[in-house]
């Protein structure tokens, strides 16, 4: 990554990403959009998430890829010099998130992790998350479906990411119990919407560039 004077050089923003291969991304949206449509939506969400973090110009950026993704897809992006690449490690989502955050915190004092499912996270949200970690161990942006779309930390333990019902409406509730049991201080930002299932597509009305994906639904 080129040298840059970030306002928060002690924070790493991590984006969990995968190569947008037809039939392998946004699979729960294939019945509504078809394989190609679901893959195109994922590609657009991926590009939007990366561009959103780059243009925020807050911190260094890392794209953390699924093992099956070709790194060449990402290194050939026009803004590939704006981020570094790593690979997700772990047997489930919780382990992968823990490992990514723990690895980042070896070199940075704070780490923020997002996926590509929520195109509503903005610069102010990142700024709030970074500021929250001055006085809290972790920060979350809960999702309307019961999960969360952003997690940040200045320290992590595996317990926070173990035995959680990933993909259910209980994720944030279960996480709160574990956090409290381990005497973690955490802050929750405004609730957000993510795009996972057909019913979520209506939220794309808030973005002109995504409106084509809800026509006819």
What does this structure look like?
The structure is a single chain. The chain has 217 residues and is α/β, with parallel strands linked by helices. The chain has a single domain (11-214), classed as Spore Coat Polysaccharide Biosynthesis Protein SpsA, Chain A (Alpha-Beta Complex). The protein contains five helices and seven strands. It has helices at residues 30-56, 71-75, 93-104, 123-132, 171-181; strands at residues 11-17, 61-65, 84-87, 110-114, 138-142, 148-153, 186-188. Strands 3-2-1-4-6-5-7 form a seven-stranded mixed sheet, with helices on both faces. Strand 1 (11-17), helix 1 and strand 2 (61-65) form a beta-alpha-beta unit. The mean pLDDT is 95.
Q: What is the gist of this entry?
A:
The chain is α/β, with parallel strands linked by helices. It has helices at 30-56, 71-75, 93-104, 123-132, 171-181; strands spanning 11-17, 61-65, 84-87, 110-114, 138-142, 148-153, 186-188. Helix 1 links the parallel strand 1 and strand 2 (61-65).
Instruction: Describe the global form.
Output: globular
Q: Pick out the low-confidence regions.
A: none
The number of distinct structural domains comes to 1
- By CATH, the superfamily comes out as Spore Coat Polysaccharide Biosynthesis Protein SpsA, Chain A
Could you name the CATH topology? Spore Coat Polysaccharide Biosynthesis Protein SpsA, Chain A
What level of helicity do the residues show? 25-40%
Structural class: alpha/beta
Please tell me the overall pLDDT: 95
For the termini, the CA-CA separation is 41 Å
| Main β-sheet description | 7 strands, mixed
- The CATH architecture term is Alpha-Beta Complex
């Amino acid at each position: 990554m080129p040298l840059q004077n970030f306002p928060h050089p002690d924070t790493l923003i991590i984006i969990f990403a995968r190569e947008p291969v037809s039939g392998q991304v946004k699979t729960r949206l294939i019945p509504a959009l078809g394989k190609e449509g679901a893959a195109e939506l994922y590609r657009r969400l991926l590009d939007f998430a990366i561009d959103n973090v780059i243009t925020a110009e807050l911190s260094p950026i890392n794209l953390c890829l699924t093992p099956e993704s070709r790194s060449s897809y990402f290194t050939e992006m026009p803004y590939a010099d704006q981020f570094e690449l790593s690979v997700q490690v772990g047997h489930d989502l919780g382990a992968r998130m823990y490992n990514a955050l723990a690895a980042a915190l070896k070199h940075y004092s704070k780490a923020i992790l997002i996926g590509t499912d929520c195109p509503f996270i903005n610069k102010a949200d990142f700024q709030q998350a970074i500021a929250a970690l001055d006085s809290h161990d972790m920060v979350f942006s809960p999702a309307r479906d019961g999960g969360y779309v952003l997690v940040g930390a200045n320290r992590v333990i595996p317990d926070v990411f173990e035995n959680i019902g990933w993909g259910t409406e209980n994720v944030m509730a279960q996480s709160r119990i574990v956090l409290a049991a381990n005497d973690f201080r955490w802050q929750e930002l405004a609730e957000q919407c993510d795009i996972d299932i057909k019913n979520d597509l209506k939220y794309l009305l808030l973005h002109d560039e995504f409106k084509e994906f809800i026509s006819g639904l």
